[in-house]
Amino acid sequence: MELDIGEEDLRFEEEVLQAPYRLKGWLRYIEHRREGPARALTIVYERAVAKLPGSYKLWSGYLRHRVGLVRDKNPVRHEEEMRKTRLCFERALLALHKMPVLWLMYARFLGRQPDVTQARRCFDRALRALPVTQHAAVWAEYLRFARRVGGVTAERVFRRYLQLWPDQAEQYVDWCVEKGNWRMAAAQLIKLLDDPGFKSPRATSSPYRLWRQLAQIIRHHPDVGLDVEPVLRDGIARFGEQAGELWTALANFFIVRGHIERARDVFEEAVGSVSTVRDFALVFDAYAEMEEASIAGAMEDE
After folding, report:
1. How close are the terminal C-alpha atoms of the chain, in Å?
2. What pLDDT is stored for residue 100 in this prediction?
């Protein structure tokens, strides 16, 4: 590529020719060319990084420029331009592979391409290249990418993340709930509840809150593939003074399956077991609602 040089460019040309390894001269030339044709700015950037390949400031500016050129273009129809931008990132990372911002820029760029495998591999490379102290920023972006693409890719990313950060398992539960994967959400909650060493980093979280969340999932989505009764009875045994929601979830599990007598037995057991006014009212109201529905159904059948 050749650069068309006008009279207004001569002083900048002279400066970079006289001191080609001086960063300030190149930055002044780049700023001068910024309002002109994009091609001319690209040429100046290329000349600059050729002389100063280890300059983070030059490469970060150049990569933002290249990404901006293709941001609104169809990645399939403009694959050649996308390929050139990818090569620019690869060249930059040869010298600056310890710079997390460049890795994140690259991963975001690849994340907008049709082949999400490239982005996933970029995140994996970043985690290998960067020190552990800088992994948190990469994982935050990696998880946003996983949530967006979903599917098997997201499950794999989350599982790998939880191997390293098991105390963040509630993020995985949130994602499962968001995607309507009730089976996996319930299974993960049970895993957390069975782990006596689990400490939630969330200030509002507690074992009882996790039990309530599990009860709500079972109540509204009873076909989660779990052995529901022993699971809920375990929670009832642990939280006898706050077990009203767990009792009603267990009864509802049987109601949904049409086992009204079994549900009635659960309600009777609950009424005789709860120890707070709040839990009694909760269980009694649910029991009464079931009986009213049963009577209304019987009258309709007649």
Report:
1. 88
2. 97
**Three-class HEC string of the chain:** CCCCCCHHHHHHHHHHHHCCCCHHHHHHHHHHHCCCCHHHHHHHHHHHHHHCCCCHHHHHHHHHHHHHHHCCCCCCCCHHHHHHHHHHHHHHHHHCCCCHHHHHHHHHHHHCCCCHHHHHHHHHHHHHHCCHHHHHHHHHHHHHHHHHHCHHHHHHHHHHHHHHCHHHHHHHHHHHHHCCCHHHHHHHHHHHHCCCCCCCCCCCCCHHHHHHHHHHHHHHCCCCCCCHHHHHHHHHHHCHHHCHHHHHHHHHHHHHCCCHHHHHHHHHHHHCCCCCHHHHHHHHHHHHHHHHHHHHHHHHHC
What is the per-residue pLDDT across 26-70, written as a single tens digit (0 to 9) for each?
999 999 999 889 999 999 999 999 999 999 999 999 999 999 999
Q: How far apart are CA 84 and CA 66, in angstroms?
A: 9
Q: How many residues does the chain have?
A: 302
Q: What is the pLDDT of residues 3-27, one digit of tens each?
A: 677 778 899 999 999 999 999 999 9
pLDDT for the residue numbered 297: 72
Q: Could you tell me the pLDDT band of residue 204, with boundaries at 50, 70 and 90? A: low
